[in-house]
Amino acid sequence: MYAVMDKFKLVGDNKGIHAAIALSIAVVFLFARDAVRLVNFITPWFVMMLIVGLFLTTFFVFFGVKSETIGNTVMKDPRVYWTVIILSIIILFISIGQVFGSDLEGGGTGTGTARPIAEKEGASDATSEGFQAIVHPRILGALFLLIIAAFAIRLISENVSPTK
After folding, report:
1. Number of neighbours of residue 40 by Cβ within 10 angstroms
2. Is-above-0.70 flag for pTM?
């Protein structure tokens, strides 16, 4: 966190403030189990995204694309970095939902007589099970790989000229 604060100068140039903010965040992670659970849940997804990116880069270099070309064209292309940003935001929201989902459902301790909508209308728990099936790590991983493959195919096919 200190390195991020020092690099982007979010709160100025004062290294003491950077150290204080980094220490504060470290203390929060020391005492907040949910924050640690969030990091533990989110880390494998970002590592997987990094590994897929490295494999794609290695794949292109293996087939003769210069590394300078990859750095200059692909990494500066808005389609690529916006895709990475959107995937990162999706992973963040799914992780927050998984870690803090039971707290956000609203299962409060109120004394009112209101019943959940599902009980009132006789609805089943199918929507909850469907949501759990969609956000299962295997399904999300497969969708992630399909999206990466689709973008790779699109980027490869744009640069290929037909031979006559």
Report:
1. 11
2. no
Which DSSP helix (H) or strand (E) runs through 42? helix 33-62
Alpha carbon separation from 69 to 56, 76, 94, 156 (Å, rounded): 14, 10, 34, 13
Task: Report yes or no: 48 and 141 within 8 Å, Cβ to Cβ.
Answer: yes
b/e map of 78-114 (b: 16 or more CB within 10 Å)? eeeeeeeeebeeebeebbeebbeeeeeeeeeeeeeee
How many CB atoms within 10 Å of residue 65? 16
Q: Is the pLDDT of residue 162 over 80?
A: no
